[in-house]
Hints:
- By secondary structure, the protein is α+β, with helices and mostly antiparallel strands.
- It has six domains: about 1-40; about 50-250, Biosynthetic peptidoglycan transglycosylase-like (Penicillin binding protein transpeptidase fold, Orthogonal Bundle); about 325-335 and about 340-580, Beta-lactamase; about 595-630, no CATH class; about 635-695, no CATH class; about 705-785, Sandwich (Immunoglobulin-like), CATH 2.60.40.
- The chain contains 23 helices and 27 strands.
- Keywords: Carboxypeptidase, Glycosyltransferase, Hydrolase, Membrane, Multifunctional enzyme, Protease, Transferase, Transmembrane, Transmembrane helix.
Amino acid sequence: xxxxxxxxxxxxxxxxxxxxxxxxxxxxxxxxxxxxxxxxxxxxxxxxxxxxxxxxxxxxxxxxxxxxxxxxxxxxxxxxxxxxxxxxxxxxxxxxxxxxxxxxxxxxxxxxxxxxxxxxxxxxxxxxxxxxxxxxxxxxxxxxxxxxxxxxxxxxxxxxxxxxxxxxxxxxxxxxxxxxxxxxxxxxxxxxxxxxxxxxxxxxxxxxxxxxxxxxxxxxxxxxxxxxxxxxxxxxxxxxxxxxxxxxxxxxxxxxxxxxxxxxxxxxxxxxxxxxxxxxxxxxxxxxxxxxxxxxxxxxxxxxxxxxxxxxxxxxxxxxxxxxxxxxxxxxxxxxxxxxxxxxxxxxxxxxxxxxxxxxxxxxxxxxxxxxxxxxxxxxxxxxxxxxxxxxxxxxxxxxxxxxxxxxxxxxxxxxxxxxxxxxxxxxxxxxxxxxxxxxxxxxxxxxxxxxxxxxxxxxxxxxxxxxxxxxxxxxxxxxxxxxxxxxxxxxxxxxxxxxxxxxxxxxxxxxxxxxxxxxxxxxxxxxxxxxxxxxxxxxxxxxxxxxxxxxxxxxxxxxxxxxxxxxxxxxxxxxxxxxxxxxxxxxxxxxxxxxxxxxxxxxxxxxxxxxxxxxxxxxxxxxxxxxxxxxxxxxxxxxxxxxxxxxxxxxxxxxxxxxxxxxxxxxxxxxxxxxxxxxxxxxxxxxxxxxxxxxxxxxxxxxxxxxxxxxxxxxxxxxxxxxxxxxxxxxxxxxxxxxxxxxxxxxxxxxxxxxxxxxxxxxxxxxxxxxxxxxxxxxxxxxx
Length: 785
């Protein structure tokens, strides 16, 4: 009975002991988690920013915020060879312990007590990582804190993550930290490409970074490396052949410069992604290197003309990825502003926006490729643009006007399309400066009177290469793919591309046939006012390349032009990267269902009329393009001798003959007359016609006064003799005009003759009458400056 009682008592004591142990463990866990919550481990390591190319190779590296080369090694950088070598050397039981190795700690404590000094350590990789994260003095209290922090690391991070963090923080002397930094700066390659000998070298240096200095004490490093390789052999960590090769491998290690390619884009991406240690750009390392080399070589050639800066942007048309980004010819040239990013600098586009305008005109039905436009001197409400070569071509087709970059037809077209329509389209395409300037922009914007960037212009032309669909450019792998914006219909985009492919045009470089191979591309040039900016932007099915050449200072150069300065570089780039476009050429898009062809009169581009005898084929957009009968000639009744013409009111009962005469506008007729180009004129109207000459309210309009401008104010300098010009356009058959100033006859002249007068301050009425008795008045105000 007594024995049974004692047995029960012992059972109760054991249960109480177990309960006390569990309670103690629970209390310890509560304390640990409380401390973990109150004092969380900080892992905000300021890494160096790395910019990589699309294939993962490093393009550019930056110092960390604390001026360290501390590059972030990803898990893929930690190869099995590296993992085995570092764990064998530093922590063989890394995968098994909870952050500390109690057996190693007991062994180290015993040795230290027996010898009276520190002979061996017991720090695991986890504890060493804590020490690297939070450096402290080597005391027992510090050791206890490290132990606690090691448990925290094991609690919050996986073993792979702890090993990765350790390898990112180990010191290599100076301001180099982390195995990836050492691999790149001493061996010029990523950790994944290191040999066993090189990996072993990098595993031994962190223990003695001051004495084992690569590039200085290489002989000592080799000695220590081979000692560890021998230990690897003894432990059969690697096969015999691998060990033997590593022992015989010479050490070629020295301090290298960090990669510095694509500096402009790298700085841009770093500013836009401040918290990312690795930024994966879309650049192709091969294309980027090629572009940088060609731009620098070309800049050296044109420097003799006092032209110092160039910028290039290359875009993959299919993915919209930027594959090359060259902001200047030489980033290190501080004298010429080499650190300015020419891809994002706001400049004047010259004529480079014209393709978009013609595309909008195609979509509006205003023109087709063979529509005739007037390239003659024209006054647009006080704005009188001139062509680049200061010559005029008379009537030209729309495709000729675009391919030859004529200014007068472009301004006239913009007036018809409407400046707001062009501005709105450019805003949709993401032109930021134009969004700010929108209210102040006028007709001059199509000749360069606005601000654009090379990035915006290149993106616009990728839209032409993609059937009128413009998408944001992709600079990094993390850029979101957004929906494209439709600027032009597929039909209009194809017509523009078809026009820009023509090679019979003035913007080919001088002596081109003797100097270059012509790539198969569609391209457009631009030269800004004052010859400050030269543009050449081209595309084929694979790439769109934008080229800007000029001076960041804004200084103009007489030799600067889009054709002779920017286009040679554009052609070089295409010839090297994608000569003759082996991927094929643009065909009529399947989406261009409305694109068709029709017969037109070559004189006007309209549908053939009564007097059109030699029609040709032209593209049109069904249901959109204007359908007008050609009226380039008109029927006129004259007498047999062709000395007088008749209207329906005065035509005689007999003797009248029906003939056809050119039916051209007054400005075209004036152009022909001023250039002595013969044109058949309609005979003077029957002087006996009472309807025209016997009535004061004739139906026909009087002369159109083109200078001065009605309602305008003109400022003159009273100290200098100032002359103003009078000019007009008149109907067919008018031979003489009469100019009146404030109702007083000033001068009799031919319609095409320029008349000048010296104005006086005040309100001035200007009248112009023709020899048919018709007249027109305008009023202007003359003021002193």
